[in-house]
Specification:
By secondary structure, the protein is an alpha+beta fold. The protein is built from 5 helices and 11 strands, in the order H-H-E-E-E-H-H-E-E-E-E-E-E-E-H-E. It has one domain.
Length: 149
Amino acid sequence: MFDFLDELGITEEQASRTKFKFNISVDGDPNKPAFKLLKNNFPGFLTMTAWRNSGPNSNLDDFDYVISFARDPVNNKRYLFGGLYYVENLPNVKNIRDQEGYRLYLDQKTKEKIGKLSVILNDTPKPTYGVKYQTIKDIGLLLEVESKD
């Protein structure tokens, strides 16, 4: 995990204020994989990352950052890096349900790594699985970096 933080240039302290969001599909529909959004419709992927619903799983209310991933359709345990974002809550965020609740700002230092970094996750998440850094440390991630060849 620490290699992943180093690769992104963020500290453990920043990671402690970060939500790690593992996206599998849009609205839980297996025919709409998050991977396709990441590769073919980045604005749609950004909307999915900024989405706020009634449950705490995908909500970013108490976080300064979000790191988003999309599941690889070939390897269920591999997730492609979809970006590091700074989170700004929209006004009255606690009243927002089932729509975008946050303004996200893509970290410019890491944007070239989108789709080129991936992590292996040992757990099998729900359609959108958001976890805190401590949970990430507990389950562990294996970093993969796309070859430059």
